[in-house]
Amino acid sequence: MIIVNSRHAAHDQPRHVERAARLSAALEALHAAPHASGLAFIEAQPADDASIRAVHADTLLDRVRWSATQAGFWIDHDTYTTAASHDAARCGAGAAIQAVEGIAGSTPQRSFALVRPPGHHATATRSMGFCLFNNVAIAAQHARARLGVGRVAIVDIDVHHGNGTQDIFYQQPDVLFCSIHAAPLYPGTGDDRETGSGPGSGATLNIPVPHGTGDAGAALAFTHLIEPALRRFQPELILVSAGFDGHHRDPLGLLTYSVAGYTAMIGRLCAIADECCGGRIALVLEGGYDLAALAACVVGATHALAGRHDIDDPLGPSGQREPDITPIITRITARHPLFATGTTP
After folding, report:
1. Going by C-beta distance under 8 Å and a sequence separation of 6 or more, which residues neighbour residue 22?
2. Whole-angstrom Cα distance, residue 67 to residue 49?
3. Is 78 left (phi over 0), alpha (psi -120 to 50) or beta?
4. N or C, which terminus of the chain has less Cβ within 10 Å?
5. pTM higher than 0.85, yes or no?
6. Is-catalytic flag, 121?
7. Class of 2-339 in CATH
């Protein structure tokens, strides 16, 4: 099930990397894909104020709403709004909610919320980093508060750390936040020593990897950290902040993932969802700023959600030599509470 935020298009600055052409390219590629006839496309409906306020302060919602009264406004140096941005952001959050509603029932349908603006940098109190509302956090909280879901895992595969999602759930023991991201890089958060606080101690897993890390490094991180963490946590559903700006062609990213590598990550998360939570997994689009790479990764992701592994990578591997991330894995395994014997967050 593909939930489409068609109201995104008027939230646009054509010379900005986070522009309407991103989602247009992804949708064009999906409709042209060989398996397009098997995809169900659903129009996103806007999230209500209560759903947004469940994770965001009133001041943030009011600021985004007010910004729509301006001809053009910049919340910070790289986060713009237009007169249509409040509507687009509300529908983006609503699409993420619809995605979790699609997987939370007795007959879950794997879902992909194709949204913009993205969301994972928006904190409880601040829109930032191209993000107005935190779509995946709103969806996770909706699942917990309204759908009776107890334990939610959020896996962030964007090249940038999902600081907003971490901020919102940092003290929550029933939301596991895992992020694999490039470091150093914007927004400067996501050190592996950030593991949660108070009741949420141990429910945050950050895997900062060096520039140039690619498919092989990601596979190691999944084998030794992400998959064991998910098995230990035993979520009732898995949400994925699906950012594709770690692709080797991306103008903002500093990693060297390929389309095949991203598809493999999502396939592995689908397998864990089958093992741990009855197949309940939903993707929410985050970054990805090379149009061809974004489009190909979105198509690959839908293949993975459908359980298909015969994907064609039209852009190929980076061909670059990767750094060794074994010392990072060893360090995290040795000191993270999630891997301590007898500890469950």
Report:
1. 116, 288, 289, 291, 294
2. 16
3. alpha
4. N
5. yes
6. yes
7. alpha beta
